[in-house]
Specification:
There is one protein chain. This protein has about 120 residues and is an all-beta fold. Helix content is about 0%, strand content about 45%. Strands 2, 4, 5, 6, 9, 10 and 11 form a seven-stranded mixed beta sheet that branches. The model has no long low-confidence stretch (mean pLDDT about 95).
């Protein structure tokens, strides 16, 4: 199975920046779709940013222009640069991976499907 470990969360003032990193045990056909999700207390888990195979990154409307997702195959990492953070960005952030096939889009992934990290907390206040 693919193992994912997130890091880089923390507390920041509104308008600040954080960079999340996800170390992936291996990039294989089981992890050719990668993405970041978040879940705030009392809310459903939502997709934030994803790289679906060879497609251009996809972003949630709420983070477009502020967040940037990138993948470094040489370092086996998936990163999320978050700028201009807002209090509504406060959530537990999760890294996830899945196999891409057919019309699958990463934002539709939910547990127990795919591979998930343990999460890292981001607090903006």
């Amino acid at each position: 199975d693919v193992q994912l470990v997130e890091s880089g969360g923390g507390s920041v003032l509104p308008g600040g920046s954080l960079k999340l990193s996800c170390t992936v045990s291996e990039f294989t056909s089981s992890s050719d779709c990668m993405g970041w999700f978040r879940q705030a207390p009392g809310k459903e888990r939502e997709g934030v940013a994803s790289i679906d195979g060879g497609d251009a990154p996809t972003y949630a409307e709420s983070v477009k222009g502020r967040f940037t997702v990138s993948q470094d195959n040489g370092e086996n990492t998936l990163s999320l640069q978050m700028n201009s953070l807002k209090p509504e960005d406060t959530a537990m952030y999760y890294c996830a991976a899945s196999h891409c096939s057919g019309g699958f889009r990463m934002f539709s992934l939910r547990p127990p499907f795919g591979f998930w990290g343990q999460g890292t907390q981001v607090t903006v206040s």
